[in-house]
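From the thread on structure requests for the teaching lab: each student submitted one protein with a one-line request. Submission from student K.M.:

"Model Inositol oxygenase from Arachis hypogaea, tokens only."
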Amino acid sequence: MTILIEQPELSTMADEEMRNELVLDGGFPLPKPLSEDGFKAPQINSYGRSFRNYHGESARQKSVEEFYKLQHTNQTYEFAKKMRAEYGKLNKAEMGIWECCELLEGIVDASDPDLEESQIQHAFQSAEAARKDYPNEDWLHLTALIHDLGKVLLLPNFGELPQWAVVGDSFPLGCAFDEANTHHKYFKNNPDNNNPAYNTKNGIYTEGCGLDNVIMSWGHDEYMYLVAKGNSNNLPPVALFIIRYHSFHPLFQTGAYKHLYREEDVENLKWLDIFHKYDLYSKSNVLIDVEKVKPYYLSLIEKYFPSKLKW
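Reply posted by the TA:
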């Protein structure tokens, strides 16, 4: 069945082609928020500065810049392939989604200039913000809750990887590093930057190959995507797209790497553009009462996932 729907207004995609009427196959609609009293994105973060400001002089911003220096130097095509092969075995643990959520309690993201709260708070802040705007899209609420579960890679049982191999913006490997990437200047020290097989616009890829054929930098996004894909689940495919590319900010904020898109990617980007509002701008020092909302999210976990997953 083919459904014609109107595309919602997009604040971050400049291409006119993305503002035309969208045709989706499979009967999966893209609704507008039901309430005008939904989540309102704040103008400033918890430090009183603009969101995703990477160029200030605060101690936090300087530490974030040092993080990106390490990430951009060490995230190579071969490294990502190796990590994907190792963690794709899903042999690190066996546990439920809620158990994994609880592991986020002690994790702080060193790449984030906007928040120093634990990642479990970020998960619930994102989910509750999405729930406020789209109360009937329970799959979106759950996707927001679990999108960062891959950050357990920082913990000893999952290899205790360094922050540069877990968090931060993601980007394609095997082709040139687009200047839209945060702190692009530090890619100069990346071995791939001087490899003629990888440092051209297309690199090892062909135009329009599709993002699912592109090797991304290794991190929590890719790991959680592998976990969700490798276990049975009832989430729509676009949920896995959101999980996999939610840190790929040049993709949906500047249109970078669009030469790699195919039609399916353009369609999924509509939901990713919606999601990033809740991921980026729900960060706050006003904490969610986890015990109060826990029953609702437990019901979603039971609906969409088995009781135990391989990690």
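TA comment: Residues 1-28 have pLDDT under 50 and may be disordered. Residues 56-310 form one domain.
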